[in-house]
TrEMBL record:
InterPro entries: 2TM_dom
Species whose genome carries this gene: Variovorax boronicumulans
Residue spans crossing the bilayer: 30-51, 63-86
UniProt keyword list: Membrane, Transmembrane, Transmembrane helix
Bias type Low complexity, positions: 1-15
Protein name: 2TM domain-containing protein
Residues in 2TM domain copies: 20-79
Region (Disordered): 1-20
Amino acid sequence: MTPMPSSSSSSSSSSADIERRARRRAGAKMGWFIHAFVYVVVNVGLVALAASRGHNWAVYPLMGWGLGLLIHGAVVWLIAPGGGLYDQLLERERRALGGGDRR
């Protein structure tokens, strides 16, 4: 028979879990900000290079990489746990299953 965990034990594991999840979410969001910063810096350079030679080829990397940045942002900010859309869908499913608000 295993002993029941004390309330302080479950509280500390809950705090550790919350800390781990918070760090993971913050890391994902920081990763998106870095991605967006690099996108802007590199593409400003590409646009300047293309414009200096009288061409407009820089629009293709802007669109391709921009789509990747958009998908990355959707995953980080909307779909991933902690994102607004994910939380709304999770809450809707809880209500549909009759579970109310459990976290």
